[in-house]
Amino acid sequence: MPTRSKTPSLFEYFADLPEPRIDRCKKHALIDIIAIAILASICGAEHFTEMEEFGNRKEEWLKSFLELNNGIPTHDTFARVFAALKPTAFEERFVRWVQAVATATAGEVVAVDGKTARRSHDKEAGLGALHLVSAWATRNRLVLSQVKVDEESNEITAVPELLRLLEIKGCIVTVDALNTQKEIAGEIREREADYVLALKQNHPKLHAEVEGSFAAVLKDENADGAIKTSESVENNHGRTETRRCWSIEAPGWITGFDGWCDLRSLIMVEARREIKEQQTTELRYYLSSLAPNAERASQVIREHWGVENSLHWVLDVAFNEDHSRVRVGHAPENLALVRKITHNLLQQEKTLKRGVKTKRFAAALDDAYLLKILNLKTNDS
User: Fold this and answer.
1) N or C: which end of the chain has fewer CB within 10 A?
2) What is the dihedral of CA 324, 360, 111, 135, to 10 degrees?
3) What is the pTM of this model?
């Protein structure tokens, strides 16, 4: 038997997970099942059968830091455990680990956005697809947390629950137009963070008033001192995109001004795209608790879209999340969290200058590299 090494620090955060099984079903230690699932996911496993296969192929190596008193769990065991495991308990330990890994940064943009695992539905059982709201720290490049949206509800009720899980003091929280709600703005400020909230026609009167405020200010020849502006130009693959941003102080007369907690500025972004002879222009509006500062506002808004490119797109392309057919019990939500643990680990590993898929392939080939990914230093180290 190999000499047992120190347990990788990640697993220590999940060692006290509440046991979801009755005594006679505890053939394998819960932490061993969790550990193999995470390790297998790093190496490219997407299903329970692949987790079992990974374990069988790596059994002697795994025994260097796991108990495995009864060998490798079967795929049925993985499926039963992840279906029974309480997601809130799993999530709590995930958040605790992320807080140890993340480096607190003043002004960090935390983008909150939802995503549906499209093939997780079960029409025969009357189950809709799993929809999760996640918080993405753009500078740390870490998923901070996730919350499931109940089928009888929507993101508006899930976002405050998500925010209450997070340590976001001093951060800037961004949300899409669906979640531009007074209650969410209030929750963000209660957490001692600032907000930048996208504004669309779901608030028709407010949208019209904000639109009119900018039209009036831009028309006023004496408004130079009242409006902050910023412009950037980007050329990429034959496309030129010019972004112009304006930021003004929020007037006290706009609809529901007092209800939008600490509202200080309004933001307008014009995105003009030119591809060959074609040109399109889009105007977007935002509410913010930040003081008027167009350059800062433009940067925050651009960072928000990192949740799509750096998280959701990667989960679909590198992890095939949209094709997952896992449906039983809590398994879809728990496996989504395993993918996010894996994503965080791979984002933080900087020595291999490759994409996520290549890093997963390298980890499958090289146990030393797999351990390098796993033994991410924490702030507790």
Assistant:
1) N
2) 60
3) 0.88
